[in-house]
Amino acid sequence: MSKFPALGARLTRERVSRGWSQRQLAKKVSEVAAEMGVSMPERTSLVKSIGNWEHGRYRPRDPYPMLLSHAFCIDHDVLFGDPLMPSLRSPADILAAIMPEGDPLAPLGARSGRRIGPSTVSDLAARVHGLRLADDLLGGDDLIDTAFRELGAAVRLYREAAHAEEVGRALLTVIGEGAQIAGWIASDAGRHEEAARTYKLGISAAREAGDQTLESNLLGSLAYQIANTGDTGEAAALALVALEVMGSHSPGRARALAWDRLAWAHARCGDAQGAMRALGEANVALAGDRDEESPPYLYWVEAGELQVMEARVYTELHRPLRAVPLLTTVLARYDATHARELALYLSWLVVALADANEPEEAARTAARMLDLSADLASERTTQRARVMLGRLKSYRDVLEVRDLFSRYPLTA
């Protein structure tokens, strides 16, 4: 007899929608448990329990609700709550939860500072774009002081200087763009809380300016960071909000980037079908882009970058036969002047090669990545090096891998 039919049906639906068998779900739950340090029974016993839950015979007991929520990347209250209640938070709820308290952009009473015009805003915008170009070549630690000094100056001008309404709106856009690159730089430096606060400041500025494309880009940037460092389910929800905020009339490059970030969040959740759908939408969006419509901050979004994300998604989903050829093609286009990006892409190639049972080539590629990133002031490359080397540890009996760990003892 089924005691919990609604819950059983919901668990079954979530599993089947991801293309998982009960055994695959058990494997995913076990992986989540291992990450959390939770002991688990034998896999066959867990598969049997999943069958009982899906048939509604029993309700999962602790710690399984938590583990299932993480495995499905779904909020606990959504997965195990009342099925008659709304199952997802609205975009407004999600946005309200992430916005900073107070208003850091509120003017300081009657503005008594100097009056500024369009030329001042243009100068600030040029400096922000200069930071973007510098970020192509330098690590976060090298740029973070400059980035936040520029952002602080723009915020002070908005709050203190006198300006026409149109100039104020343009200045808000510059603040939003500055917050995006400053947040990205802070994230690259490993200062994730500071990055999140900065992205939220930018979201406020973009919304005040009425710039939906910029607001979406900032939401997507925050979602991307959360996907890499926090709750992947929250990241996917926020990436969806970024798409909804943007609307269908935004530039193709902007929509492509938003879809790419959603694809990554889905991949981090283990949702292969969702990731593949999002990648397809990203390519469709980019194909419809007209360069003259795109803001300057999207200069780097092009077909090659979509290939990079596609390869990363395949790597994250452990599909090396698709990931390796894509990464090899992409890496052929990069030179050492873009050292951080080259190092990051090499790290994903190492993982894909290891998944393809090619430890010798993986070790050679890893050595190249470590040499390239040795002098980079980027926490992102440091973290990827740890992931890469961690993946190679299971091959330590292979000569090339053993030599790699002997050459790089501090990173092993």
From TrEMBL:
SUPFAM superfamilies: lambda repressor-like DNA-binding domains, TPR-like. InterPro entries: Cro/C1-type_HTH, Lambda_DNA-bd_dom_sf, TPR-like_helical_dom_sf. This is HTH cro/C1-type domain-containing protein. It comes from the Bacteria. GO terms for molecular function: DNA binding.
